[in-house]
Amino acid sequence: MANDKKTPLFDEHVRLNALMAPFAGYSMPIHYGSIIEETKITRSGCAIFDISHMGEIMVQEDPSNCSLDRAITVPVTKMKEGGCKYGFLLNENGTAIDDLIVYRIKNDEWMIVVNASNEVRDYETIKSRLAPSAKIQNISDDSAKFDVQGPAAYDVMKKIAGTGLAELKYFTFKKFPLLGEDRIISRTGYTGELGFEVYLNNKNAAAFWNEAVKNGAVPAGLGSRDILRSEAGLPLYGDELTEDITPVEAGMEKFIDFEKKFIGKAALLKQIETGVEKKLCGFKIDGRRTPRHSSPILKDGAAIGTVSSGVFSPHLNCGIGMGYVKPQYAEIGTTFEIDLGRGTAAATVAQMPFLKSASIRMTLK
Fold this sequence. Notes:
Strand content: 25-35%
Helix content: 10-25%
Largest sheet: 6 strands, mixed
Oligomer: single chain
Strand order of the largest sheet: 11-12-13-10-4-14
Number of domains: 3
Shape: globular
Radius of gyration: 20 Å
Number of strands: 20
């Protein structure tokens, strides 16, 4: 952990006695005392997560002849200014180099938010696919990012950034006056709850964190975030998405605009036509045992797939997970077993998200 990078809030996490551990090249807080309690507070109140390890890449280009539009799956020229859209950076064979979210800042400017572990490669890959006239800048090292999440997130955030936040619809953003400067706040998140993602300069990171905590946000770490995203059925790069997996296999083709050109399109269309050999599904464990990454999935003793990730859900009071299985076993209601090393656990394929919150799209007042 000595060689891991630190977010601008590292000293604050240490002061709060957070359990720190390596993640994606950073020393990150796993929890501040209880993963379960931090999970529960996010579902019932408001939590704040330091997500400053994520990468931010800026691209400027004439939208009338946009090479960025061809570099990634997101239809960047169709997006409205102030809109956010989820998509992928793909190889020619259709597998995922990364999943990402694009913000259209202006008519000719976009911000691409990428996973920390892929930041440098994503930047270099996108840069190599852009036209010479396009401008690209990696601003990750100068940026801090916080997720304020939970049904009470607006109550906390309006005290800091004002009631104008109520105008934000799901997956939109605006710039708001924040600590003396105009900063991007989006109505997005990774928990399945109402939430805001806040982008700041490093110099204002501690001030914002302390202000959010003063107004009712509870610090939460990556441990609870993993449970929350799992309950919401959201993928994690490195687990549900890798360079061995396509968005079609992950069941995420609905996020792809096949009307436009993009690298990897031909491979995905062929896969849709011919079918896939594996398919992502969600499942519930019969009991409180926790499935783990790479655990074998069995049917009548024969291997049919592999767990990609799993957690214990305190809200469902059982183990839940996601995994890749042969397509015939991915139907809702299908039963199989998970090899947990010390015996097996019965599991049933379930609809995702496992837990659906009404707060995520609630009208704000």
